[in-house]
Amino acid sequence: MFKKFTNACVALVNKYLPDAFLFAIILTIITFVAGIFMTGQTPIAMVNHWGKGVWSLLAFSMQMVLVLVLGSAMAKAPVIKRILVKIASMAKNPAQAILITGFVSTFACLLNWGFGLVVGALLAREMARAVKGLDYRLLIATAYSGFLIWHGGFSGSIPLTLAGGSPDALKAQTAGAITAAIPTSQTIFSSFNIAIIVILLIGIPLVCYAMIPSKENTVTVDPKLLVDAEVKTYVIKTPAEKLENSKILWILTIGLATAFIVYTFATKGFNLDLNLVNLIFLTLGLLFHGNIRRYIDAIEDSAKSSAGIILQFPFYAGIMGMMTGANAATAVSLASVISNAFVSISTATTFPLFSFLSAGIVNFFVPSGGGQWAVQAPIMMPAGQALGVTPNVTAMSIAWGDAWTNMIQPFWALPALGIAGLSARDIMGYCIITLLLGGVVICGVFLAFPLMGLI
Hints:
By secondary structure, the chain is mainly alpha-helical. Helix content is 72%, strand content 0%.
């Protein structure tokens, strides 16, 4: 019965889900029309919001391109490939491959979301090479499903913002609802958050295992298509070639980057932001490739798969601009309409649940943790305070809603899809099942814990 439902979801997505770029265009049209009718703004106003927003994610877009390119280049180093091959060799059949990939990718995303996205996809490629009869679509979907856990983990942008923000900044972000920093002991390490993490850390691999299709429905990939570029043999004759292969320049570059990484950890603790993750990827990539010339070639080869991010992210930035763009007369935005609709039907007991669901809807149109917080914090945080809900609970319900619908939002899947060489429709049918699992678990915790007086 479960596999029939899974197969139906896969067939439905394959038939009706357009290419990820067209998905972004359709969301753009929906947001444009909804903004006119739900906020009373003119078409010109919505066009203006779109135009102002379309280039607002340029820095973030470059960060995501680097996540993909630097992570892939690092993985092409012989030592990293040997590690991935070693892990993949532990799987003797498709079931073991899915379970191992699911657990490793979920745990890696718990540690850091950028690291987890890349590691999960790269391990999945090695699994596809090593294990015969493995459904490649499900394998990549399994690797991506680990991303569901990220915002409750150590790199969650909302809990880290609460822990590290100044009182004035937090007060401004939350319309006065928070006036002091909230430590991670009340967010990431709270009892309700740990409950969600433990259940998903176990549940995601098991649900992906349960989705393994029958042999007649299995779609494999020819391992020959997953072969990386051949290792080049370098002839060093000219002065330029000697510079490119210079051990001195290689050591100096690694030393500079390593010094900054160590200094950052020593002065700011082990809070990894995206820039630091990328610098670590770059440094390790240089180190493991052994010289600058080999690393340059690895970067050039890896950059070919970044086209989807470059094309689509400006459109998502435009969508965010229309979602947050407010009516000049009433100060009402489309995001505030959605958030306030859930607030109006909430009680102290149900508010965490409805905050989570509203964040899940908003995340379709604002697929960014920082963007989600900027849009919803000024609305949901004061509302929760008025109902007697503690700020840490409201904030984490927004964080989990932001992570939840990523399972059926191609925005974050693009790096993994670029590494895998697949399209969104190849994996989203399976990700619907992960979405349902996450919804049941997170809704259950946010409803049960208030009823039991635990939050």
